[in-house]
Amino acid sequence: MSILGGNTYHSCLSALVVAVAILAGGLCCGQEPIHVAVNLVNVAFSVQVAGGALLDNLTKEDVEVYEDAVRQRISFFAKSMDVPLTLGLIVDVSGSQDRFSKQHEHDLEVFLKEVLGPKDRVFLVTFANHIRLVSDFSPSGPEIIERMKEYKERGKGKGKLAEVPELGPLENRVLGTAFYDSIYYAVTEKLARESGRRALLVFSNGEDNSSSHDMMTTIETAQAENVLVYAIRYTEKEHGKLTARNKYGTRVMDRIAKETGGAHIDTETTGPHTFSAHRGGTEDFV
């Protein structure tokens, strides 16, 4: 099996840009240029067979990595089950997800119970037209669920949600769904500071109407930090059919997941026990 190193490309490109910037600055000031080389790049990926089942028994010998058509040496190879995971959970609480509120909570509980390991850490973010940090990093699944329940209780009181800290700068958002911004700021303000295996699970329908960032900026930011995005989709159909807006959100979640090395999961056909298996189906090599 051959894996084209998409994340490798973005990491190397970022290093190249930095090197060029440093070089240009040095030449302007009459200083000696500084050369920067990338010797080791972390790349995460998951492998699925026809039908969506995950392969979880790959070895180093099963994988080949190419950069500019040149095969690269894999120095280290590990399954994600063997590596501590830093995880962000992003839950869409905008009006379009109201009917899925209970399902979100149930699926979160199942996921945290089945996936969170003793060395893992997780934080919880919700978003509508504000992006709120409901729970900072915690190794405890039950604690995360408790913070979510407290957040919902706060939502019943006028002005109480304003006490929950926000991610990103204060924005004047007229409409109610900042999907892209929730991912962007979860990466830049939380996961970018962390090392090791990092991923986001986004519980949403992929629709956006109030972000200051677009889809490509969101994808590139996650790629630059080697953050996998798993898009867990909840779509409310009209008369049993997808609307044009539904189709747009579906394509968005599919692309973000694929471009970052994660997976796009439709909860109408896939239950939480199944998508929990993705924790063990992700490999890591450098």
What key phrases describe this protein's structure?
286 residues; alpha/beta; Rossmann fold; 2 domains; six-stranded mixed β-sheet; 12 strands; disordered N terminus; disordered C terminus
Structural commentary:
With 286 residues, the protein is of the alpha/beta class. The chain folds into two domains: 78 residues, no CATH class; 194 residues, von Willebrand factor, type A domain (Rossmann fold), CATH 3.40.50. 33% of the residues lie in helices and 21% in strands. It is built from seven helices and twelve strands. Strands 8-7-6-9-10-11 form a six-stranded mixed sheet, with helices on both faces. The chain has a three-stranded mixed sheet with strand order 1-3-4. Helix 2 packs antiparallel against helix 3 and helix 5 runs parallel beside helix 6. The chain starts with a strand and ends with a strand.
Could you provide a short overview of the structure?
The chain has 286 residues and is of the alpha/beta class. It contains 7 helices and 12 strands.
- Computed structural class: alpha/beta
Report the end-to-end length measured between terminal Cα atoms: 16 Å
Total tally of structural domains: 2
Tally of alpha and pi helices = 7
Q: Would you report the number of β strands?
A: 12
Mean pLDDT metric: 81
CATH class of the largest domain: Alpha Beta
- Unreliable residue runs: 1-29, 280-286
Assigned CATH superfamily of the largest domain: von Willebrand factor, type A domain
The CATH topology of the largest domain corresponds to: Rossmann fold
Strand order of the largest sheet: 8-7-6-9-10-11
| Secondary-structure element pattern, one letter each | EHEEEEEHEEHHEHEHEHE
Radius of gyration: 20 Å
Tell me what portion of residues adopts beta-strand conformation: 15-25%
Helix content: 25-40%
Largest β-sheet summary: 6 strands, mixed
* CATH architectural category of the largest domain: 3-Layer(aba) Sandwich
**Envelope shape:** globular
